[in-house]
Write a structure and sequence with these properties.
There is one protein chain. This protein has nine helices and 17 strands. The relative contact order is 0.16. It is globular. The chain has two domains: about 130 residues, NAD(P)-binding Rossmann-like Domain (Rossmann fold); about 210 residues, Dihydrodipicolinate Reductase, domain 2, CATH 3.30.360. The strands form three sheets. The chain has a nine-stranded mixed sheet. The protein has about 375 residues and is of the alpha/beta class. The structure holds alpha-L-sorbopyranose. Alpha-L-sorbopyranose (SOE) binds next to loops.
């Protein structure tokens, strides 16, 4: 039986629930995991919120605020799933208290904060990881393997969109994700962050970018109450939207490939449309999160007259992570990506090695986010500087 590790989570909303599934199910799916997490304590802004999450999600203790939990002597790992404005303070305090840190994306509000976080984990030697969970979709991992095996040859194009539509109603209120001081940016940091990370993972480093950012609805009702998931109730008074509703950009990769990125919360009919296509000298690969058990592949080397896209159902036990789940064809879903992340995190902590995507990947992503913001302001191409 593997050793145990006590986890403290800060943040009890949508992402808190998603991460909790990871801790709850990891040893169930992967009995070979090197450390078994114990869901020791959950903290939230109010004790009522923390207590109700404790009961529903299955944590042992509940507490208020983040300052105490990061010092708790019986906790070895802090999971940060608060609003983005708190990531840096919590992660730095946790690392300085000798705790390993797992942090939601985007890593922080800006590059300077990411660097502070890196300094803290480097000086204390704790393990760190960022929750870019889409790397952990089996189909995405398969894409990575196939690219490494030469299935698409030299990559020419990266084409990615992350499309949502949950704030299209102008009466939808000003949740924290729509406030710059809490979120840093809007669709950009929330959604582009994911497809930037996937581009880094699957194609390579981004050298320079040219972007545009747009806010379609500039005023909304203030928030009256959150209602679970991404849901919220509107209040009476109006307030300013201070983030982008949509951000699009072009990118030049260091290896010569070119890319397009589009993140929006105004793509009606697209609930969670995280999609990409990569075209290379020998073939193409494409992925759509709303069909996450599938990977599409086109091989230019197939015989003339026999070419075409094929759809691989990525559920065989030989596919990444699938040995933990069901027999072939028994599909998995979004929450499983969190279990896979936690599996890697537990093994990383046991091996004393920060598993990718870690804070260095988080910083690289933030540098692209920031370069796009600068480009949108100036109307110029901007070089990505880490
Ligand atoms: C809301 O846009 C959201 O929950 C993001 O914050 C997540 O990172 C993404 O995975 C799904 O959508």
């Amino acid at each position: 039986m593997a050793d145990k590790i006590n986890v403290g989570m800060v943040g009890a909303a949508f992402m808190g629930k998603a991460h909790s599934v990871g801790y709850r199910d990891v040893a169930f799916a992967f009995p070979d995991v090197k450390l078994v997490p114990v869901m020791k304590e959950i903290a939230a802004a109010t004790i009522e919120e923390a207590e109700s999450a404790r009961q529903v999600l299955g944590w042992e203790r509940a507490s208020e605020g983040w300052e105490k939990i990061v010092q708790a002597p019986d906790i070895q790992l802090i999971d940060v799933c608060t609003g983005n404005n708190l990531h840096k303070d919590i992660a730095v305090a946790a690392a300085r208290a000798g705790k390993h840190v797992f942090c939601e994306k985007p890593m922080a509000m800006n590059v300077a904060e990411c660097k502070e976080m890196i300094k803290a984990v480097e000086e204390t030697g704790v393990v760190h990881m960022i929750n870019f969970n889409y790397r952990r979709v089996p189909a995405v991992e398969l894409a990575k393997q196939m690219i490494e095996e030469g299935a698409i040859g030299t990559p020419y194009h990266w084409r990615a969109v992350y499309l949502q539509d949950w704030i299209m109603d102008p009466k939808f209120p000003l949740v924290w994700r729509l406030k710059k001081e809490l979120a840093g940016s809007g669709a950009h940091g929330d959604l582009n962050a994911h497809i930037i990370d996937l581009a880094h993972y699957l194609v390579g480093d981004i050298d320079s970018v040219c972007g545009l950012m747009k806010t379609f609805i500039k005023q909304r009702p203030e928030l009256a109450a959150t209602t679970g998931g991404l849901g919220a109730k509107a209040g009476e008074t109006m307030g300013e939207v201070t983030v982008d509703d949509a951000t699009l950009f072009l990118a030049k990769f260091a290896n010569g490939a070119v890319g397009t990125f589009e993140a929006t919360r105004f793509a009606g009919g697209n609930r969670n449309g995280n999609r990409f296509e990569i075209n290379g000298s020998e073939g193409s690969i494409r992925f759509n999160l709303e069909r996450l058990n599938e990977l599409e592949y086109f091989d230019r080397r197939d015989k003339e007259g026999r070419q075409g896209w094929k759809t691989i159902l990525v559920t065989d036990p030989v596919h990444p992570y699938m040995k933990g789940w069901w027999p072939a064809g028994h599909i998995i879903g979004w929450q499983h990506t969190f279990v896979h992340q936690i599996y890697n995190l537990m093994n990383g902590i046991a091996d004393k090695k920060s598993p990718a995507p870690n804070f260095y990947d988080g910083l690289k992503c933030q540098a692209v986010l920031e370069a796009v913001e600068k480009s949108a302001e100036t109307g110029q191409w901007v070089k990505v500087e880490v």
